[in-house]
Amino acid sequence: MKRMITILSALLVTTFAFAQQITLAKWTFPTGNAVDTLPDQASTLNLNKFIFTGGGTSVIAFKNGASTKAAQASGWDNGQDLKSWQVEINTTGYQNIQVSSKQTAGGTEPGPRDFKLQYRLGTGGTWTDISGGTIVTGNDWATGVLDKLVLPEECSSQNSIFLRWLMTSNLDINGAVIVASGKAKIDDILVTGETASGIEELTISSMRIRVYPNPCAGKLRIETENELKKVEVYSMSGSKVFDQASQGNLSIIDMTGFDTGRYTLVIHVVNEAHPFVRPVVKN
């Protein structure tokens, strides 16, 4: 026990890793083919996500974009507060979610001028405006741009977040009423998140362990490649405050009732001689 307290005391002064921003999903429509509805760069949980439209536009085509191609659709007439571009994102384990995009609606068949970015948690959530997410498009790729727009905190570590670029008026970029042939394009959609406080991927021998979110205000998740045996949590004084036998590869600790501060997580894994020990923070 004395040795354990010594180990815990040393770990409680361990500093946490700096935040690391990574790409969760990115659409640049590089090929101009139907496969471009899927992201050309994505984390594992977002490889099968795709862009689509809502409200009854035409099917998506791929035309000239900001660099390579862009997603294009027509049929935006009478689409105020109804028609939109949409994507779904899994942000599990990540925080400080940011969104960038480029839109245009010019040329000889002008499309919708006004949009706003909204989010919804899962399929049953309520669409909510994002502060700073108002977009006015032009006949170029520099006017209708969102650059690293930060989403609300509740978008952190969610299994399903829908984003939509919602049309907010029936006017085209010239101020006239949009007709059915009016076209809109979207390109360079990028969704990123930070990993340092959201998810830590660690190693025992050659086995990976994921601990997230850390810091944690609610439920702390521990995922392992091998079967878990037991999970313990110790306070700064070395007192055990949580002890749970585990089966399978996932353990969830509800930290809601824990006092704010630092703790030490001790993870016991089947067929591992020594436990893995990691500081965590309750905020």
Q: What is the strand content?
A: over 45%
Order of helices and strands: HEEEEEEEEEEEEEEEEEEEE
Largest sheet: 7 strands, antiparallel
Distance between the termini: 28 Å
- From the alpha-carbon coordinates, what is the Rg to the nearest angstrom? 23 Å
Please report the number of helical segments. Answer: 1
Number of strands: 20
Give the CA-based shape.
elongated
Instruction: Give the integer mean of the pLDDT values.
Output: 86
User: Into which percent range does the helicity of residues fall?
Assistant: under 10%
Low-confidence stretches: 1-18
Task: Give a concise summary.
This protein has 1 helix and 20 strands. The protein has 283 residues and is mainly β.
Describe the fold and architecture.
This protein has 283 residues and is mainly beta. Helix content is 4%, strand content 46%. The chain has one helix at residues 2-11; strands spanning 21-27, 41-42, 52-54, 61-64, 69-73, 84-89, 95-104, 114-121, 128-136, 144-150, 161-167, 184-194, 200-204, 207-212, 219-224, 228-234, 240-245, 250-254, 261-269, 276-282. Strands 1, 2, 4, 5, 7, 10 and 12 form a seven-stranded antiparallel sheet that branches. The protein has a five-stranded antiparallel sheet with strand order 3-6-11-8-9, with no helix packed on it. The radius of gyration is 23 Å and the shape is elongated. 37% of the residues are buried. Mean pLDDT is 86; it is low at 1-18.
